Amino acid sequence: MSIILLDIGxxxxxxxxxxxxxxxxRDGTTGPGRIRNRYCDSALKDRLDRGMVAxxxxxxxxxxxxxxxxxxxxxxxxxxxxxxxxxxxxxxxIASLREHHEIWIMSDTDPLHFAYLIDAYPVMRGHDxxxxxxxxxxxxxxxxxxxxxxGNSVHDPGQFILVDDRSVNIESCRxxxxxxxxxxxxxxxxxxxxxxxxxxxxx
Length: 203
Prior knowledge:
Structural class: alpha/beta
Order of helices and strands: EEHHHHHEHEHEHHEHEH
Shape: elongated
Radius of gyration: 18 Å
CATH architecture of the largest domain: 3-Layer(aba) Sandwich
Strand order of the largest sheet: 5-4-1-6-7
Number of helices: 11
CATH superfamily of the largest domain: HAD superfamily/HAD-like
CATH class of the largest domain: Alpha Beta
Strand content: 5-15%
Low-confidence stretches: 198-203
Largest sheet: 5 strands, parallel
Mean pLDDT: 95
Number of domains: 2
Oligomer: single chain
Distance between the termini: 21 Å
């Protein structure tokens, strides 16, 4: 039995920031791109994911930004949170993995997103452990995030398998002796060597 470190974004649920950017932008033409650069693909987003910016502070920045629509904080909270859709096969895939392995969720995420996901998607609940960047301040692109996992467990690095959609995170986990599977789809994950849930074991 291995311990699966399971990413959330684009593994369990797909992430699309475009609806948020369109909803938040005052200018419907070029504004969404600027909103994305400022809030979604930025150092500010990294700081939010690392717990260095409080959710209320982040929503306040959105509400006070002259390029965003004149709306109250709940509007921006809802727009920021409702950017997810289920990845096909994720619920069934996780159930198959659980028959043979422990499932630990490990995600670079912020409190607003995680609170919504745990409430809206039952597949997010009931896993063995959760390692969330906003709680420990580390992102998976740095090996220290995986050293943090090891430091909070009694397991050897070779017992862990990261399933993640970003190659930089796979490279990072391998630097500390863990294995990694670059996510493309759930069929490929379940057919990966060493997971014991390949096509021959599925009906």
